[in-house]
Amino acid sequence: MNEMKFWQRLYMQIYDTVTNADMWMNIGMIVFKIVAIIVISRIVVSVVQAAVNRVFQHRKDSKIQMDQRRVDTMRVLVNNVVRYTLYFLAILMILQLLGIDLKPVLVSAGVLGLAVGFGAQSLVRDIITGFFIIFEDQFAVGDVVTINNMTGTVQEIGLRITRVRSWTGEVHIFPNGTITQVTNFSLQNTMSVVDVSVAYEEDLKQVEQVLKEVLQLAQTELTDIVAEPQILGVHAFGPSEVIMRVTAECKPNTHHGVNRNLRAMIRTEFTKRGIQIPYPKIVAMQGKGQGQTVGHA
């Protein structure tokens, strides 16, 4: 009998709870407010980031001109800070709606932050290093760099990490504190250096004249060349060739493309002028010491 009464009371309590309209109204309002906070926070983040992108947009007619590399880096950094800050505030508002007192949470967060500061020294080092990378303008978004022997284009500089995309498509992520050596190929003009091999039988004065004409044409056609190309003369002697060196100052990180174009133009002009480019040969002996030179592919 007592067991029956117990189950009846339990049933009535559950029934009263389930059928309590005020309780469901309160839960519905809390869920609605949480969803509204999430949606509004995402909208605010999108609007603020759009405004930040507009502020950091490059304007050619602006009286204040800044380095586009630094502008892109600051734009990415400000967007990250805005996103983290707004989402953190949204989480605090949700916790408050759930009835959690924020004062102990904030105090605990302060104590936890102090403990993390001692325990996570690498994280602090990453953030400090990232700040100095941006402050000293060591490299910026869009720069081609070599970081710790890994070469690629900087995609993002965050508060903690740097993302670099290699030319084959891989994305390498470096904690800022681990960046010990950086080579930046995008700060200064680069030098295109092309070694040209000609046969010993060729007239070097004629070769220099042809190279001079080719380099003059290249300076006109190749917009990446920023100064008059130079013929440095004979650079070295090979087993079957004389090596001549030409140079051209180019825009930052464009020397590889200029090298390829110069080689193609020189090869085409040498073929037109009948200037022989050396290749390995085999001498076949026939009869009484007579020899015949045969080309070897």
TrEMBL record:
The chain crosses the membrane at residues 30-56, 77-99, 105-124. Its main location: membrane. Residues 123-186 form the Mechanosensitive ion channel MscS domain. Gene3D superfamilies: 1.10.287.1260, 2.30.30.60, 3.30.70.100. It is a multi-pass membrane protein. This is Mechanosensitive ion channel family protein. It holds the Pfam family MS_channel_1st. It comes from the Bacteria. Keywords: Cell membrane, Membrane, Transmembrane, Transmembrane helix. It is found in: Cell membrane. Belongs to the MscS (TC 1.A.23) family. Residues 80-121 form the Mechanosensitive ion channel transmembrane helices 2/3 domain. InterPro entries: LSM_dom_sf (IPR010920), MS_channel_1st (IPR049142), MscS_beta-dom_sf (IPR023408), MscS_channel_2nd (IPR006685), MscS_channel_C_sf (IPR011066), MscS_channel_TM-2 (IPR011014), YbiO_bact (IPR045276). SUPFAM superfamilies: Mechanosensitive channel protein MscS (YggB), C-terminal domain (SSF82689), Mechanosensitive channel protein MscS (YggB), transmembrane region (SSF82861), Sm-like ribonucleoproteins (SSF50182). It comes from Brevibacillus choshinensis.
